[in-house]
Amino acid sequence: MNSFFTILTAGLLAATSLTAMGYPTEPVKLSPPTDNEQIIEEQPQGDLTLYSRTCRAFREYYGIIEQVVEEGSIVKVVEQEDGTVWLHNTISMFYAPGWIKAEKTDDKLIINGPQLIYEEFDYDTGKLYKYFATAVEIVDFENEAGELMRSYRPTEDGVFTFDIKDNVLKESGDGSLIFGIVGYSESSGYYFTGYGDNYVVLSVPQENMVVVPDSAEIHDNWAMYYFDQEGYEVGKFVNLAIDGNDYYIQGIYPNIPDVWIKGKLEGNTVTFPNFQYLGPDMEWRYFAYLAGGQLDEDEWGNIEAVIDTDGFVMTLEDDGSLYADTNLLFVTSPDTNQENANFIGYFEGVIIKPQDSSTFTNPANPEEIYLGGLDGFPAIEFNLPTFDTNDNLLNTDNLYFSVFVNSQIFTFTPDAYFDLSYLGIDEATTELPFEIGNGYDFFQAGSWHTVYINGIPEDAIYNIGAQSIYYPEGKDVNPNNVLKSDIIMVGSPDDPSSVEEIGSSKEVKEVVFFDMQGRRVLNPEKGMYVKIVKYADGTEKTSKVSIR
Predict the structure, then answer these.
(1) Nearest Cα to Cα of residue 233 among 368, 370, 380
(2) Distance CA 39, CA 56 (A)
(3) Of the candidates 160, 305, 379, 435, which lies 20 to 30 Å from 461 by C-alpha distance?
(4) What's the predicted TM-score (pTM) here?
């Protein structure tokens, strides 16, 4: 079983457009698509149910079709009164905007393909390529040399069927059919792209949510610190509830902030059992469950999650703080293989501790400042801590920063920075929000920020700097109540040659983005992407980013 991270990595390494893929497939001459077909992107009317999918998933990897075990991904199912059913996220390794139509009988759900699900414009050829969901047949045969070969070809009827029993949808048949993605060309007809699923089971997960009793003592806004999967230090607020020896934490999983988890205090340790249900993570499209564990790397470099059978264990300190003895996993299924789990998140070094508002001070200084950028376009890169000088966690909604170039504070204008419009900034400003997201000019991964400096040539920059700015009540509420860090400058205040110093520590060679299917994206728009920063020294930094 492969981890979610491994799945992402494989897609990144492929970095291949569907239009360039080639396989030992047998195209099928069906009726060609018409110009009247449209992708159904809006959710149809009807009753929505979220199903959890387990299946054997197929994906393209360096021109080879790989098979992995997939579990816990969310499939949206909308049922209408006339028996029409619509499905979304129907192929596990291929997230597409289109909804798929099916017909329901008493004990069957029948999907008739091909149905248009995705379109891709190839700028090299100037052509629009269309991709369809349909049934694909697995064909094993011997070649002239007597070697066993495998081929994949779309079926002539395009029908993929599920059996319905007790609100569970289970693929009919023996797994010889794949519900897959096919492309179309005038010369070849329909052909399999390498993405699809078989042995598919869709079920509704049991929602055993933790409920905090009325007798519990609630502690709001405790600080939680941890290192994320990419090694960035992250801080967030959580709520704690205590009822005797029962400990409850709310907000431990960032994408589902309202859910609580429950642990039991014995001696000075609090143990949170594995596989507590957290809910559907609609951003990553997986159902999430809690577990204690760690990551491991196999001999091929694949990252795997190994679950600790004891659960997620924390030590209780005298001041009420909790320090993790094990690392924290967010897995995709309660039935996952504990020695090689599919996972969607991983936190190391979790610390949860109370905060005293009377001890708040200025925000901590920016760190690790250097001159980066790409292809002659300079950028200031730095780490912006999310805590103050007394180690109190700061609300990042109220945290801002300024940058300095050649000993002067830098002004960002909407004319020079296209990204500002997405941030709702319509006027020139010297302060940018911590949660700046990712776009053409600004990039963020945890507390790490990259800010491109437009309008100043790289060889004209001789020093750079940054400052952290915090508004305890909120900038819009009380802009006069403001706390600032020191201005941290790097380089000489008057020596143009010092630009070589400030850029030499980490020269950025290239920044690339890939979508969740592993295809490279030149101009990322709104959505989830994987960002890889490649440095001149051969190192790389990979992070998951959301462009808003």
Answers:
(1) 368
(2) 26
(3) 435
(4) 0.76
